[in-house]
Amino acid sequence: MIEYLKYFFNPSHLFTLRPGAMHSRAVMILLIAFSVMIVAGLLIKLYRQRIKDGLKIKALDRLFRLLLAIGVLGLIYLFFAWQGVVLLAARFWLLAIIISGLVWLGFILKYLLVEIPKLRHKLEQKRKFEKYLP
User: Fold this and answer.
1) What digits encode the pLDDT tens for the residues 53-81?
2) Band of the pLDDT at 114, cuts 50, 70, 90?
3) Does residue 37 surpass a pLDDT of 90?
4) Rounded to the nearest 10 degrees, how much is the dihedral formed by the CA atoms of 95, 14, 75, 70?
5) CA 127 to CA 44: how far, in whole Å?
6) CA-CA distance, 34 to 56, in Å (whole number)?
7) How far apart are CA 42 and CA 39, in angstroms?
8) How many CB atoms lie within 10 A of CB 132?
9) Are 12 and 35 in contact (CB under 8 A)?
10) Residue span of the structural domain in which 92 resides
11) 8-29: string of b/e by CB count within 10 Å (b at 16+)?
12) Choosing a second label site near 32 at 20 to 30 A (CA), which of 70, 104, 122, 128?
C-alpha cells in the first residue's frame, strides 16, 4: 500500500493528463473519505441547531460549507476518474481539491482562534460600557 501511495503522489504520475486507471482500493478509500466528509458536514448542520452562540454558529456554518464542498468535489472527481475522462480525471485535480481544502480550513481556524476571541472581547467591553448607561 505504501508503494502505491508513493506511486500515486509521484509528480510524474500526478501531473500527467492521461493517468492510468485508479486502483480499486484507492477508489474505495477516496469514496469513503469524501462520503465521510459529506456526512460529517450534515451532522455539523444538525448539531448547529442546538447552539445558541452566534459566533460558534457562524464557525460551524463555515465548516459545514467546507466539508460539503470538498466532499462533493471529491465525488465528482471520482466519477470522472471512474469514467476515464481525459482532462477531468487527471490526478492534479485531486491535489488541487486537497490543497484548497487545507487553505480553506486554515481560514476557518484563523476565524476560530483569532477573530472570535477578539469579537468576544469587544462584546464584553460593549456590555460593560452599556451597563452604566440609562
Assistant:
1) 888 899 999 999 999 999 999 999 999 88
2) very high
3) yes
4) 0
5) 30
6) 24
7) 5
8) 6
9) no
10) 2-131
11) eeeeeeeeeeebeebeeebeee
12) 104
User: Cα separation of 83 and 94, whole Å?
Assistant: 15
Rounded to whole angstroms, the Cα distance separating 108 from 37 reads 16
Name the residue type at position 130. Answer: E
Q: How many CB atoms lie within 10 A of CB 70?
A: 22
Q: Backbone phi, then psi, for 129, in 5-degree steps?
A: -70, -45
Using alpha carbons, list the distances in angstroms from residue 73 to 35, 48, 105, 113. 11, 23, 16, 27
Single pTM value for the model: 0.82
Secondary structure (H, E, C), 53-87: CHHHHHHHHHHHHHHHHHHHHHHHHHHHHHHCCCC
- Number of domains present in the structure of the chain: 1
Rounded to whole angstroms, the Cα distance separating 34 from 71 reads: 4
- 109 three-class SS: helix
